[in-house]
Amino acid sequence: MRVHIFVPCFIDQLYPQVAFNMVKILKKLGCEIKYNANQTCCGQPAFNAGYWEESKSVCAKFIQDFAKAEYVVAPSASCIGFVRNYYPKLFQTSSNLNEVVQLGQKSFELSEFIINKLGIEDVGATFNGKATYHDSCAGLRECKLTNEPRKLLNQVKGLELVEMEDVTTCCGFGGTFAVKFDAISIAMADQKIEHAVATDAQYLISTDMSCLMHLNGRMNHTGQKMEVLHLADVLASGI
Fold it and tell me: What integer pLDDT is reported at residue 35 of this predicted model?
């Protein structure tokens, strides 16, 4: 299966190992990897900040970059959710609306691609430790992901997965929300961290590095010792 990978801008700049691990997993599962080096951002930051026209020009480039892709896979439910749910709204009066909708239909977050398209639950990973999982808002509400990441994690040898209380509550990041409403954002992060720490887990795992970046920053500030890991980092372990 030929897969075009999309590497979100913040992962490219701050957490490149997540992208490398995604490639490692997909290759292990027999996928042929394609990478368009011209790719940039999906346009979500500008859109969420209210700059819809500026965002649209970035989105148009994304559409062009991945127009010929059979599948687009990204280690970010946030980016995929944006492409699926908001591109059709941005381009609703454009002549290429059908192309935009089709792009959303062939774009997948990593775990849902492995489970729902490849039909694989055990990627052969080994990771020793106790972990809890954070449902990102984008994963849960925009990509409708609940079981897919958990199915993969439950098959990782050596990993004990425990659920935290109130797992579906937002972590407080929300992109520019964390900047504009910092006090609320911090309070939401503290609540999420409290629930995660209560599980006695060593690791906090999610599909979205943006959430983990926010929570990790707050934990570092408050002296919490829990380590954050992207799903791809765990699934690539030992394969």
Answer: 97
Q: Where are the domains of the chain?
A: 2-116, 122-235
What is the per-residue pLDDT for 186? 95
pLDDT at position 160 is: 98
Q: How far lies 136's CA from each of 6, 183, 208, in Å?
A: 19, 20, 6
| 122-235 topology per CATH | Rossmann fold (3.40.50)
Q: Which residues does the chain have with pLDDT short of 50?
A: none
Please state the pTM of the whole predicted model.
0.94
Cα dist. 218→89, 189, 202, 213, 225 in Å? 34, 7, 16, 9, 11
Q: Where do the H-state alpha helices sit in the chain?
A: 9-14, 16-28, 44-48, 52-65, 77-90, 97-105, 110-112, 137, 147-154, 177-180, 182-197, 209-222, 231-235
Out of 3.30.590, 3.40.1550, 1.10.10, 3.40.50, the CATH code matching 2-116 is: 3.40.50
Burial 142-151 (b: 16+ CB within 10 A, else e): bbebeebbbe
